[in-house]
Records
---
Amino acid sequence: MSRSARFVCLIAASIPVVGLGLAGIQTVSLVLAGTAIAQQRVAPPSREAVQYSFAPIVRKAAPAVVNVYVRSRVQAFTSPFADDPWFRRFFGDQFGEPSERVMSSLGSGVIVSADGIVVTNTHVVKGRGETEIRVALADKREFDAKVITQDDKTDIAVLKMENGDGHFPFLEFEDSDSLEVGDVVLAIGNPFGVGQTVTSGIISGLARSDVGASDAQIFIQTDAAINPGNSGGALVDMNGRVVGINTMIYSKSGGSVGIGFAIPSNLVKVYAESAVAGRTVERPWLGAKLEVVTREIAEGLGLSRIAGAVVTRISAAGPAAKAGLEPGDVIMRVDGVEVSDPRAVFYRLTTKGVGQTAKLSMLRKGKGLETDLALVSPPKAGKDDVRNLSGPHPLDGARVSNILPGLADEMGLDDTEGVVILSVRNGSVARSLGFRPGDIVVEIGGKTIANVVDVEEALATRKRMWSVSVKRGERILQLNVPG
């Protein structure tokens, strides 16, 4: 694999847009298997059977695929250094006068209910500053839209179009677990802003879990051509139902090379239904740390295959402990479906949902066993567990929390005690200094940090020189900055 290749999110950023109308461009390909043939998953019996057109499927699906236009108003400074908080400390806020700048971007989306619910990618709608979202349909109608929910980890966002008549064209979700490698699919979206485009291909792979940035991501792979601007568009089957939301490509140039990825419809459906119901999606708390089964681990445990998720740590009062899991157990299946790694395990648990029970099939010392796992919400952080930090110190703009059992699982932390950075506000001192979510605060000014109270006390007194140490992965990083 070339080092110059990279994974590309498919939003077409800063595309010049003259109006919000859709170009009437549609590309339709010929199918290599008829609808009935594809459903039966058998080889075409004759030459005539391979000459069916995609047109009936496109007529059904295309009206529900929309363009999503995002305009963000951000503050820009005349000086390239004037928006740096440390620069302003010495030269003042008036050195660089702020001016408003408008940033535009374009992506795609899919209407999934008659009342105007649209699913797309978080990276399509997530702007800086004040953001306006406009949705344009294939029939030239346009509507303002608001974000109901968005999740950075899964890259799923749910929108609601405003002032609609409640009779929007929409697509139904298909069970993405029913897909097989080789199934024919269509990708519909607005690549490069040229207008609605349809491309065909097949399912190239399932449950791809080593291509995303988050441990909550798992993908369907397809060779249907998708390009920047296709983000949030539909991947549909031969019944015209949504099997995935296109989100990312693997590319050396930024264009399609036949390796595209879509979020499975089963996960998208969970977020869409929860958003409509006014709920947030919670990933069930396992109460255990899982790791990928490597060749060395497989040999050490006597496994015949390098697959599954090995349990490396158990929280004493967590669901995994109550279900009888032990360190060294290797989870091979969830509800009868094979899982290749920890991401696949958490994907299965998330789509099953809190309040349900999942059946885990495991190997323990070479012997197979099964157990039922109760899917429960992670422990909630109390008001004394979380702090929003602000003031004349390096962690201004950071939100920190005591490391709770559920939080350690969610963020993939090895540490079960201490203080972790949950988020860092854009434009803050902490962001400019490079602090990240997941950093564990170890020391401030030589004081060892055990909880958020220690953080507040260490930051209470202004210092001429600040010293902050954080743990990031396996490394300890130390920052020294003037006070």
Note: The CA atoms of residues 33 and 397 lie 56 Å apart.
---
Amino acid sequence: MSFLDSSFFKKYLLPGFIFQSVVIAGGYGTGRELVEYFLNHGPLGGLLGMIFVTTIIWSITLAVTFEFSRKFRSYDYRTFFMKLLGPFWFIFEIIYFLLLFIVLAVIGSAAGALLRNNFNIPYPVGVIIMLAVIGFLTFKGSGLIEKFLSSWSILLYLVYGALLVAVLLKFGPEIQKNFSSATVHSKWALGGFQYALYNLGIIPAVLFCIKHIKTRKEAVTAGLLGGLIGIIPGLLFFIALVSQYPAVLPVEVPADYILQQLGFPALRIFFLVVLFGTLIETGTGFIHAVNERIHSALQVKGKVLPRWQRPLVASGLLLIGLGMSTFGLIALIKKGYGNISWGFFIVYIIPLMTLGIYKMIKTRRA
């Protein structure tokens, strides 16, 4: 039995790696999100926001969410929010679909542009490749999705680590200078708060892997570890971006910019291949959550979602998302993510930390 199939991995680490897999393309795959919510507040301010705001919020919310999911056996977002919000659960779904289409627009645009700009593959072909892989994974279901997302996340850790080492070797003095001479901007905490919130909206998309968790200790531990697992690659990438501060601030795809500055062709190609895989990871996680939601609704009526319909759902959602990609990557991230984060705070975080905890305590006493 491999480590990825072990009980320890599935209970304590798998949820964090699934969370990291789904969050990355919409969270820091291109690097634009890290610039928008962290580096814009200065290197030191961004670092403070990432460590002391985003990481703490992620870990606590993941822990409470995983325990609520385990307690009420709610492994898809429809069932979860019906338990949490009752008849008002659909409000979350509305906000979730808004985020879904924004994220799909971002990853669809990024996938096509990435292959076109770096490998001379026509834009539509890049999108079709991503669509085909997502369709295949959603057709196969949770088992293969868990293995693919967790395995690719481990590979991503290695690549981001290699990127940081390369940047430190070439731009170490610049990084030290930018950190030591930086001033902390006043809104660094708000940036970390908003970044944490809009990414928290994807947590219900990873509930399908909570079925492995059986006790409260496992749920809470997996959640606390999940926040760390999710943020570490972003932290490594952020430090690398500081080497190009402030020139990197207006760049649309900072990841590609910093790779060009490094001048290591082999690392650049490998990083871009892994980045393309992260786009597939995020799209698969978001869309699989919708399939699980549809499947859950059909089960109530004594029906099932046929496997062949899952990739059709994926194709339809991705095509709608691609239609939104015409708004531009920077505009989507700045305005779309920024506004939607407050919706998740009102509909998800506040009810979870109040009503959700109350329901868990009440159930425990009963």
Note: The CA atoms of residues 269 and 357 lie 46 Å apart.
---
Amino acid sequence: MNKKEPSTKSFVLRIDTETMEAIEKWAADEFRSINGQLQWIISEALKKNGRIKATKKKGGD
């Protein structure tokens, strides 16, 4: 049986307290986990700067 590589990788991130508190609040405001919020922020930045393709949402959003 072939094992697939995981689609995500883990790493340690050092971040200052003020930034972390802002991310925690932002995540809570959008009902996301802190990890989910960081993934979203990074994804949006990569799309905005043309580093990855933006995916189209279904339903005309």
Note: The chain is about 45% helix and 0% strand.
---
Amino acid sequence: MITFVIFIAILITTLGITYWAAKRTSTASEFYAADSQLTAPQNGFALAGDWCSAAAFLGFTGLTALFGMDGAFYALGPLTAFCTVLFLIAEPLRNTGKYTLGDVIRTRMQTRTSLLAAIAGTIVVNFAYLMPQMAGAGVLVRLLTGVPYEWAVIFVGSAMIVYVAFGGMLATTWVQIVKAVLMLAAGAIILMLVLAMVQFNPLTLFADAEKRYGAQYLLPGNYLKNPFDQISLGLGYVLGLAGLPHVMTRFYTVPDAATARRSVVWVMFLAGAFFFATTLFGLAAANFVGQDAIRAADRGGNLTLPLLAQFLGGGKGSFGGDLMLGFVAAVAVATILAVVSGLTLSTSSAIAHDFYTNWLNHGKVEGGKEVRIARIATIVIGVLSILLGILAQGVNVAVLVILAICVAASANFPVLVLSLFWRRFNTGGVVGGMTVGLVSSVVLAMIGPAMQGANAIWPLVNPTIVSMPLGFLGAIIGTLISGRDAANESRFEAFSLQLHTGVKTK
């Protein structure tokens, strides 16, 4: 009962935000980018809410509890990933784009074919990211309410549709801010309770885990047994985050490039602190709850943090235990609702703005009609994400999220970087990079251990170490074999000026 009350309170709050935002969302700029009026702290908290997904809140803790330091590698990677975003991507995106990745590619190439390739990359990556979020949501809502997993996924998908279709980016942003505050508060409470259990000496957690599970538990290789998997995970993190479309869209919600940079600094501190704490949470859960109990609750380890919170509150059946379980589980659901809302908005933007307005109608669509198309797209995307979430039942959400980041690193990142910084890069390169990157990363992921388990044909959990170079190779070969584009190269000086300064020339 306690868990249900907390969950309903958070849901009512976020729906109230959506109602407030809906009255302030009518134009395309307001729907896609909150009219570019967010401050750096607001966008930083929203980025933390966007990035700290079910993988961070649930999956990373579960991986650490079940596999030791390999889970910690997953958790700490985003710290370096945001450095790439800060120094390479944030300012150029804000200066050259409008709402989407497709805007950047269209500004540089000015061809419909390149825009279509960018749309494909956005949609594939976003759906790959949506699947684990919906899976995590189903597990948590089932825990909160007792309803079957499938109905839990349907409920979350329906709420997501309401947030995005009615409130657009403004509602999505404030839902993410509220969620980030709740998540950080929950993390701080759990951290204090965990440290109190070990007399505020975190090294005790490591010593106890080693004593219980052996020295290998604190060494790499328990989950990522192949050293190339460890390298691949690092590459996917460091370069894949910069290719995630729903992260890119956040840089269009601020008024200028300087604010975009400051937003990244905010999220590095906010998200970094939480990710660091998940390692301690995982160790504490392994020590206090036990791996057998964790696997019994969910074989992927996705309920590790709620189970730890219940233990810290006094155990199952106690008021404190139920209160902590309800609070953490409800915050986790809010976490997922915020992330899936951002993903859905990014995908609907690609369909309505990039495909319908710019590709089909050459940019000649009235703003109100474009918003209506985006809202219809939101409903379709919501239904598809529900189906994907049902299919993903039982898989650790952290693993699925990293595979989505692998696709972003292999397809979107090469095309984006070469578009921004290589004069000769052309439409053939965009098509080649997107095609090779998408196909190689998706195929290798589908035949690898993450999806096939012991029956895997491909040995690596994360194929970034192979698929990302293939994406770059496809982009380079596509550029060279398609011949020089004199008009495109002649526009590069003006594009580069806009890239670095924000100044547009005719």
Note: The CA atoms of residues 122 and 245 lie 6 Å apart.
